[in-house]
Design a protein that fits this description.
Elements lengths: L12 E3 L5 E3 L20 E6 L34 E5 L12 H8 L23 H9 L8 E4 L23 E3 L2 E2 L6 H9 L5 H10 L8 H10 L2 H29 L15 H17 L5 E5 L8 E2 L4 E4 H5 L5 H27 L1 E2 L2 E2 H4 E6 L15 E4 L10 E4 L6 H12 L16
Parallel strand pairs: 3-8, 3-13, 4-15, 5-8
Antiparallel strand pairs: 1-2, 4-14, 6-7, 9-10, 11-12, 13-14
Helix pairs in contact: 2-11, 3-7, 6-7, 7-9
Amino acid sequence: MFISKKHLPRRSFLRGTLGTMVALPFLDAMTPALSAQSKARPFRFGAVYMPNGIYPQLWHPDKTGSDFEFKPIMKPLEPYRDQLITFSKMKAPDGNPENGGVHMGASAAWLNGVGPLTQQANYTVIRSKKTIDQFIADKVAEDTPLRSLQVGTEDMGTSAGACDGYPCVFFNTVSWRDDTSPLPMAINPRVTFERMFGENGSAKKRLANLKQKQSMLDSITEETAKLQKKLGAADNVILEEYLSNVRDVELQLDRMEARAASIPEGQASPLGIPETFDDHMTITYDLMRLAFQADISRVFTFMVGHEGSSRSYAHIGIPEPHHPVTHHGDKPENIERYAKLTTYQTAKLAEFIGKLKETSDGDGTLLDRSIIYYGSGMGNGNAHDRNTPPAIIIGGGNRKLQGNRHIAVENKEPTANLLLTIADMAGAEVETLGKSTGRFNL
């Protein structure tokens, strides 16, 4: 533990055995050691991608302004309406063969308004454009251990021809560091956990280390006790809450791995990949909250699934694959299944938003300091429609954002305009993005 006189440096860690280092959340004890400029709580940004669109009539409110009613698919987010803005009548980038087609183009262009610049079947050069999350990371990452995090739940694969004639990397990410550097999504929560908290080495070595200790937190018990004696009552509450959240994530991972270990050898998923999709969603969102809470990273992107997903949602009574469900053919029973699937995804987001709101951060909460952008690269999945895609922003934006609004834009403004507005709130200077035509005045 690094301590300077009576104050904790901003970058303090609890050190344990086997290379464990647990970053600390913001504490009042750190404030005297910070300059006046750095006392402000940091801005956080998260982008959550929902594949294959929604059924617009069950998502977008009828009224604009603050007096709007939540439609069924968006209903799980109603408790957070005071910090939510939803947009309708925007237009996502077109899905044509030049920018990835109807599916891959939807996700590939979501955060940069462009999609792939690589020509079909040309695997020699992979090109797109830098995405808005990376512009924001340039501005807000500062000395965070991880500049940004990219996570997901499934991998499209790598085989030629599997991804509409393009390299599959375009299907497997929504984030680009620059024009030639895609940032693939990490789908294994254990690997993400180790990246955040300091495990390293080969997979075999990591597994051996994990078996040697019951918990990462057990290895820092002595250091924690020493620190608690130096902190005030308020800081100890924050520390206990944070370490409790870390413990919860550890226990979730342990339960998942115990189930995986019971599967006959050769059939088990890689260490850390959950057996159930619901577990996978929960643990990934919980890791992102920890990343924000410990200031390990201030920027993340999360692909709930990829376009063309064949995942079943049997756990909510939908055994059919995701992609075919979206092609409802305007039949009521099929629309009902589509709505149920996307409502479930919204409910998982709402759980995450609730946890951000419950997590203190100075005189506010993590939700007050954050902007979470949630949406898709298409509207009605049945027609691969690019008009009126789902797009919401949730959070206080570090007191720069007023919620409880439904904004219906004019002239089919591109979704890139909203991305530029989010970048402005983060203090990132981005002149244009894709086919942007301006900015929203929020």
